[in-house]
Amino acid sequence: MSDIPPVCDYEGSDYQARFWQGQGREYEDRVERIALRRFMPPTGGTLIEIGAGFGRLADEYKGYDRVVLFDYSRSLLREAQAHLGDDPRYIYVAGNWYNMPFVDGLFDTMVQIRTLHHAADAPALFTELARIACPDGDYILEFANKHNLKAMARYWAKKQEWSPFEQEPIEFVELNFDFHPRWIEARLQESGFRTGDKLTVSHYRFAPLKKAFPTKFLVAMDRLAQKTGNLWQLSPSVFLHNKHPQTAVSPLSPAAFFACPSCKTALNDEENGRLHCPSPSCGHSWGVKDGLYDFKSHE
Ligand SMILES: C[S@@+](CC[C@H](N)C(=O)[O-])C[C@H]1O[C@@H](n2cnc3c(N)ncnc32)[C@H](O)[C@@H]1O
User: Fold this and answer.
1) What homologous superfamily does CATH list for 15-257?
2) 3-class DSSP state for residue 261?
3) Which pLDDT tens digit goes with each residue over 137-147?
4) 73 in ligand 1 pocket by Cβ < 6 Å?
């Protein structure tokens, strides 16, 4: 597992309290849910949310048989576990998205919201997601759009050096990137995904507007504006509905679920709180504790 890009580590962070609880972001939460519902099949077999954090959106996945909440932060996953209780459909998995601990072709639906901005190597992430997507699977991706009106105004007013029109990602703070829609689409295509419909989201994420108008009104306005995403993308947040082609790999075996993140061999069933890699040249084992599968470090 060498040459892995750096990770923005949320272990032990107060992200939920600091960013969401009573922080005036009900508008953002609601418009993201509207976009997600527009793209995500409401029911299905196995879904994964990549970078699920404390499970803010987990209640959207109730129509799925199995829901993997995947994140690098064990502590945020424990928060998710605490509020979702012991619903057996939810599976909590800690690991790094550049080395996913799942067999090929496993997931019908993959969701990624508010996390791509931490990807120092988005193409490597997309390649890994293409591996674990099932044939014709759905990948709903939200990303922070550098090509937005506020960035353009700041650039023209010379308050910002970087150009929102250049396609390369901009790292505006260490391990925080904004992306150009055309760059993202091209990288997705290179990894085998086909991008279909687009939604522009959070058009009214502007403090004076949020102060002047009721949230309900701004949410209704955003709902109307989202569909202009197929024409142009000028909002700070963009949702893409991607499909993986029919030719994507099928699951190795219907029973297999976890794979060794080091060598990708399907893992044996849990034994004494560990999952063992049966490959003689690897032999790593991974811990399972209090319902959390931990692929961050091995023995
Ligand atoms: C801003 S939070 C968003 C959480 C959630 N998607 C939401 O909208 O509430 C970003 C999340 O991405 C996770 N993350 C960042 N880099 C990661 C990586 N390399 N592998 C897995 N998760 C990662 C962080 O741990 C964090 O929980």
Assistant:
1) Vaccinia Virus protein VP39 (3.40.50.150)
2) coil
3) 999 999 999 99
4) yes
